[in-house]
Amino acid sequence: MLRFTPLQLLLVVFITGCSGVRFQAPTAQGCAATNQTYGIGACRNAVNGGLDFDYSVQTGEVDLLFVDDNSGSMYSEQEKMANQFPGFLDSLSDFSYQIAITTTDVDSSAPGKDGRFLDFGGQTILKNDSRQRDSLHAANILKFQNTIKRAETLQCPSGPGCPSGDERGIYALNRALERPENSSFFRKGGHLAIVILSDEDERSSGGGAAGSEINGGALSSAYTAQHYDLPSTFVANSKAYLPANKSVSVHSIIIRPAINGAGADTACWQQQNSQGGGVKGFYGTQYALLSFPSQALQALGNIVTGTVGSICSSNFTQEMGNVAANIRAEQLQLPCTPDESSLKVNYSPAPSQATAFEVDASNRLNFQPGLPAGTRVNLKFNCPK
């Protein structure tokens, strides 16, 4: 573990700060990915046989993609998300953010289905602009609130045009990545944070995939999981379609399954299954696998740990607070283990105080304290062979 002394910090200050969006750099397998993202010269072969890096990042950049379960049992949960959203977005108002919403319904070519983004009223992406932050930010909140609550959800199960009850949030994410019309949403820099809101699992009950749970643990094959329904497919596709430096986190607001040593939320499961009217809830096992990715999943792409919250929460205050805190986490992923003496950093604007940081065993830089969003950071270092 590298540790920097106060004297060194006067010479070298590296920061992503309170605004520190997770940054996932490419693996040390050559310079192609870094140069593609940052331009020729961002990475070069070094005389010591290693790699020399010289590139800049800007703190406080995040793309927020919401996957909204729009099936007939979800309107009250959509309302809770809408009600809590102002506080959530206020906590990220200093960020350069983009917001889009798709649904778990992939059965047609309608807006919001099959990975398409929902329309906010003439636009499919909400953006924050520091030049008109206050007015634009307030407008973005209202547009999100009006869109996350789905008319097709409210009118079902008795109304016409009901959405599919076969929830496929992971499938929708895979389709969202590969749609050319969505490409401007996935920016080169910053972090992609995905929020899945659902009272069921992929293909309702997991599709018979590993770990699927129904009625206490038996595998279900009512809807069989296909290639695009698998967590591993999404992680691999995120690596294929997104820039190599862009990290991804998934935040699931679900019926929590047994995961990470904690037992399943049986009380929430019972609550969801006691609503009557044929409404069923299922443990969100496949979604949770993306939120707490195993080493095997992490090896497939740039996914980092997200959060899991309860669909049964009364107001989603804790759930969305945890998402915001995760996004603001003060760490930055380096592509390799740097030579401590080679690490040089320039920043604009300059920090008001020295910032302590350390490089951990996973080559992640951890910082305390941080800088405001929008800080431009130039990083130079060498990774020996």
Please supply descriptive tags for the structure shown above.
6-stranded mixed sheet, 4-stranded antiparallel sheet, alpha/beta, 385 residues
Structural description of this entry:
This protein has 385 residues and is of the alpha/beta class. The protein is globular, with a radius of gyration of 21 Å. The chain has two domains: 78 residues, no CATH class; 261 residues, Rossmann fold. Helix 3 packs antiparallel against helix 4, helix 3 crosses helix 12 and helix 6 packs parallel to helix 8. The longest helix is centred in the first third of the chain and has 16 residues. Strands 6-5-4-7-8-9 form a six-stranded mixed β-sheet. It contains twelve helices and 14 strands.
Describe how the helices and strands are arranged:
Elements: E1 2-3, H1 6-11, H2 32-38, E2 43-45, E3 51-58, E4 61-68, H3 75-90, E5 96-103, E6 126-127, H4 133-148, H5 151-154, H6 169-178, E7 191-197, H7 203-206, H8 231-241, E8 247-254, H9 266-272, H10 285-291, H11 295-298, E9 303-310, H12 317-327, E10 331-333, E11 344-348, E12 356-359, E13 364-368, E14 376-383
Parallel strand pairs: 4-5, 4-7, 7-8, 8-9
Antiparallel strand pairs: 1-12, 2-3, 3-14, 5-6, 10-13, 11-14, 12-13
